[in-house]
Amino acid sequence: MAKERRQEEPKPKPIEEIRQEIAHTRDRLARDLTGVRYELDFPLKLRKSFQRHSGIWISAATLLGTLFTMRPSGRTKTLRLKAGKSGQAKKGEEQKKGLMTAGLLMGGLRLAATLLRPVVVAFLTKKVRGYAGDKSVR
Predict the structure, then answer these.
(1) Whole-model pTM above 0.70?
(2) Are 81 and 88 in contact (CB under 8 A)?
(3) How far apart are CA 73 and CA 60, in angstroms?
(4) In terms of pLDDT, which residue wins out, 85 or 106?
(5) What is the Cα–Cα distance from 123 to 130, expressed in whole angstroms?
(6) Quick one: average pLDDT of 108-113?
(7) DSSP class of residue 71?
(8) Which distant-in-sequence residues (6+ apart) come within 8 Å of 89 by Cβ?
(9) Residue 137 — very low, low, confident or very high, per pLDDT cuts 50/70/90?
(10) Which single residue of 21, 49, 87, 138 has CA 20 to 30 Å from 28?
(11) What confidence score (pLDDT) does residue 84 get?
(12) CA 74, CA 131: separation in Å to the nearest integer?
């Protein structure tokens, strides 16, 4: 009854036209990629910004440095000792004495090592030469 209509197939484009479209698409893609690279180059943007507005950058850095140096430190602690607890004070003094003794001992050992080093080196050199001499005789 009803005739089936055939849909017309689009005419194929000539090869030269397709090649031209591909070339234009490549050019557009290359330009877009170059633009994206430029937008994502943050070191370049910072350098240019510093060159253009160096006074603002220097004053901001100075202001930040001043703020960081003037801020209150959170590390300070206030120690309150009660007069009745002398045991803790004695313990602290004992620790100080122990540290002082350890420091003096380390200093003395270092001085002794410095003074005895030439003697030890000469002794070891003599022993090593003795072993080398014994092996060559055998």
Answers:
(1) no
(2) yes
(3) 22
(4) 106
(5) 11
(6) 90
(7) S
(8) 81
(9) very low
(10) 49
(11) 55
(12) 63
